[in-house]
Amino acid sequence: MQTLNDTDFEFIEDILLQYGDDHSVLNASELDGYLTALVSGPAPVAIDEWFPGIFGGRQPEWESAADCQRFVELVTLHANNLAQRFSPRFEETEHNGQPLTLAEEWCFGYLRGAGLANWPALPAAQQVALDVIETCAAQDNFELPADLDVALHRQRVAAIEPAARALQGYWATQR
User: Fold this and answer.
1) CA–CA dist 101, 154 (Å, integer)
2) Which CATH class is domain 6-174?
3) CA–CA gap between residue 107 and residue 33 (Å, rounded)
4) Average pLDDT in the 68-91 region?
5) 88-103, pLDDT tens digit by residue?
6) What's the per-residue H, E or C state across the chain?
């Protein structure tokens, strides 16, 4: 199975930046969450439904047909890879001189994908898993506070992948 490399993700980031706006997926981490929710949800979502959602429900005015084709191919390949196996693509930063994982954008993308796929109401146990993702998405950590509770932050980030896997497992049994 072919996977995307750093150059591919840089291209995706550049396209998202070039053609995005306030209603678009902002970066590769958010795209990863978006696609993860789409491929692991209750029912398949056709590309003609989810692709415009990357750009806030519209199709960009592509300057280059080659860039459009490459972007579609890479995003589709990544979605197919995520359908087989996923490991969230979180962002990394530094806080007070220490590495820190940020998951807010991934979680925001995940919720965007779940919303586009129009997920039905979940049973209580699965809702708890979705709440883990929703809580992280609701946090505004664009500017990390100096007094950030790093241990609590890491604990919350560590809970996201198991929550997403639990939701994926639940929906797999419902298909």
Assistant:
1) 7
2) mainly alpha
3) 6
4) 95
5) 999 999 888 889 999 9
6) CCCCCHHHHHHHHHHHHHHCCCCCCCCHHHHHHHHHHHHCCCCCCCHHHHHHHHCCCCCCCCCCHHHHHHHHHHHHHHHHHHHHCCCCCCEEEEECCEEEEECHHHHHHHHHHHHHCCCCCCCHHHHHHHHHHHHHHHCCCCCCCCCCCHHHHHHHHHCHHHHHHHHHHHHHHHC
